[in-house]
Amino acid sequence: MLRELGAHVLDADAIAREVVEPGTQGLAEVAARFPGVLGPDGRLDRAKLGARVFGDPAERAALNALLHPRIREAFLEKTQALDAQGVERVLYDAPLLIENGLHVGLDGVVLVWVPRPLQKERLKARDALEDAAAEARLASQLPLDDKRPHATWMVDNSGDREATRAQVKEVWRALLARG
């Protein structure tokens, strides 16, 4: 919705996919550390890797240690390129923003919030996950309620799309007003 309003959004999940594309050092390191996670086409089988790391905090930490520095570097390169183009505002869509302390260097935080049961149901539907798998993924993140104190703005996404859209427009106006 923010993109529709003209925002430049960098998506941490998209960047995470880029750093493990075939032929990258990131993929080579992940494949070496987590044997059996490459598909027949040589691409990362995200479902296999997810099943392995979301059930084991030590494995998840090992994956994060490999990928987070690469994601951070790619994010900085992208923000520098946007800055060189004269882009004044860049939004970083990152599920682990608070957990990784990345919010500290930002001008503000927009939290998209839903009650946990709804968050879990949406996750299960979006990723076709069983209950336990969805719970494991949610457990790997700080609960949304614990992120609230860090939020500059909050969008309650528990209603219909139009209610959410109205809140997003208000946040965008506030961002633009900051100058």
Describe this structure in words.
Keywords: ATP-binding, Coenzyme A biosynthesis, Cytoplasm, Kinase, Nucleotide-binding, Transferase. By secondary structure, the protein is mainly alpha-helical. It has 2 domains: 77 residues, Rossmann fold, CATH 3.40.50.300; 85 residues, Rossmann fold (3-Layer(aba) Sandwich), CATH 3.40.50.300. Helices cover 53% and strands 9% of the residues. The chain contains 8 helices and 4 strands, in the order E-H-H-H-H-E-E-H-H-H-E-H. The strands form 2 sheets. It has a two-stranded parallel sheet with strand order 1-2. The longest helix is centred in the middle third of the chain and has 28 residues. It is globular, with a radius of gyration of 17 Å.
Number of strands: 4
N-to-C SSE string, H for helix and E for strand: EHHHHEEHHHEH
Average pLDDT, rounded to a whole number, is: 94
Largest sheet: 2 strands, parallel
Structural class: mainly alpha
The H-level CATH homologous superfamily of the largest domain, spelled out, is P-loop containing nucleotide triphosphate hydrolases
- How are the strands of the largest sheet arranged? 1-2
Shape: globular
Overall CATH architecture of the largest domain? 3-Layer(aba) Sandwich
* CATH structural class of the largest domain: Alpha Beta
Q: How many independent structural domains?
A: 2
Distance between the termini: 20 Å
- Content of β-strand: 5-15%
Number of helices: 8
Whole-angstrom Rg: 17 Å
CATH topology of the largest domain: Rossmann fold
- Runs in which pLDDT lies below 50 for 5 or more consecutive residues are none
Helix content: 40-55%
